[in-house]
Amino acid sequence: MQSGREELHFKAPWIILSNFLGKIYVQRGLIRNFVVRDLKARYIGSFMGLFWSVIHPIVLLVSYSFIFMVIFNQKARFEDVGTTNFPLFLFCGFLPWRFFEEALQRSSTILIDNANLVTKTVFPSEILPLTVLFAALVNHLIGFTILLCMIFFTIGKVSFFILLVPVYFFLFMLFTLGVSWFISSLNVFVRDVSQVLTVILTFWFWFTPIFYTTNRFPPKLLFLVHFNPVAPVVLGYRDCLLRMRMPNLNSLAVLAVVSLVTFAIGGLFFRKTKREFVDIL
Q1: Rounded to an integer, what distance in angstroms lies between the CA atom of residue 130 and that of residue 179?
Q2: Is 227 exposed, middle or buried, given 0-12, 13-18 or 19+ CB atoms closer than 10 A?
Q3: How far apart are CA 133 and CA 138, in angstroms?
Q4: Global pTM value
Q5: Which of 66, 121, 137, 223 sits in a 20 to 30 Å window from 36, CA-based?
Q6: pLDDT tens-digit profile of 143-195?
Q7: What b/e string do you get for 35-61 counting C-beta neighbours within 10 Å, with b at 16 or more?
């Protein structure tokens, strides 16, 4: 009898997570409406509208390219990545990072910004970080379209390894959502979390191989890249799109494990803490 209780206790977190995800699936229509509302609030009414999603990454790409190509003369150091075009190399790494950064920064305050909804006991607050994620996904798809146009213009083709890009991005979405659930709920109790997150993302950005290849990183600090969950995504994008070769399957497997564990922990943490949101907010 005791072993049966232990087995039930062992399965309980996964049962809770399953029920939690089931409730999210039931609310898919509400999630879609919130994503549309979010995009309208950000773009509708402005003169350029959704076209700002195209302008922002292009402006960042041009500015970073100018600094690193003109000021630091980085052009010739990227021949081993399938292209000597530095803007293409840069954009391929910057694109997934931009999705990650946008989703986390906006998720960190999403519960506080929508306190009037969260305090309603019937409202599924877990969908708020998810709507931010999907809104960031729309911007990512726009940027990815620009990236494909750049590849066709400079390289002239894509390989069938491009089919692995959605695999990388799906796992990356799971990881991002897990972190978003965690920081959004934690920020309800500790309001400094969103400020600390900005600092962490600044360091995280420069320790991600966006502007450089991993062989340019100091060997003694290379472990910072190996333990960076964003790095396999950036390298996977470049392998599939620029090098046009099979990516490192070991790093993909590690990414899958890390993403699933982070997704589960973030979901369980949110599920456990959400009952206190009404009292805090």
Answers
A1: 11
A2: exposed
A3: 9
A4: 0.85
A5: 121
A6: 899 889 888 888 878 888 999 999 999 999 999 999 999 999 999 998 889 89
A7: beebbeeeeeeeeeeeeebeeebeeeb
